[in-house]
Amino acid sequence: MTLTADQQQIIERIGVFFETKGNQPILGRIIGLLMVADDAEATFEDIQKCLFVSKSAVSQALTLLQSQNKVEYITKPGERKRYFRLKIRNWKVDIQDDLRKVFKFNEIIEEIISLRGNKNEEFNSYLKEVSNFMQFMEAELPKLIEKYKKQIE
């Protein structure tokens, strides 16, 4: 598998993006590679060679990505190799699940608000604003999903 300079640049940008979110850059780079690869899949060896990383780094990253349900592998008849690909088919469900987790965290924020005293009103105000925004987003999300469904029909 050979990558163009543009593909390599995008892969690196995705790696940096993942790093800014507190993840290992290799996770983003593997996702980026699987996104830009013409076949939308790559073998373990392809990943290692294209990203210039060790076997252990690829192995650990793929294990983590599979446990996060972001990557899966397939096999092909007559071949022993595994082909890794993104589990992007369920992207709508994945996004909704991620947002539900964020909304669930708001329950903790609301509990914190009820426990806090009045010593730092400015901080309390920020917490309330975050909670209000989360409640707003949770109420509006179903409407946005329906609007999107109608738009793509």
TrEMBL record:
<dbReference type="GO" id="GO:0003677">
    <property type="term" value="F:DNA binding"/>
</dbReference>
<protein>
    <recommendedName>
        <fullName>HTH marR-type domain-containing protein</fullName>
    </recommendedName>
</protein>
<keyword id="KW-0804">Transcription</keyword>
<dbReference type="InterPro" id="IPR036388">
    <property type="entry name" value="WH-like_DNA-bd_sf"/>
</dbReference>
<keyword id="KW-0238">DNA-binding</keyword>
<dbReference type="InterPro" id="IPR036390">
    <property type="entry name" value="WH_DNA-bd_sf"/>
</dbReference>
<keyword id="KW-0805">Transcription regulation</keyword>
<dbReference type="InterPro" id="IPR052362">
    <property type="entry name" value="HTH-GbsR_regulator"/>
</dbReference>
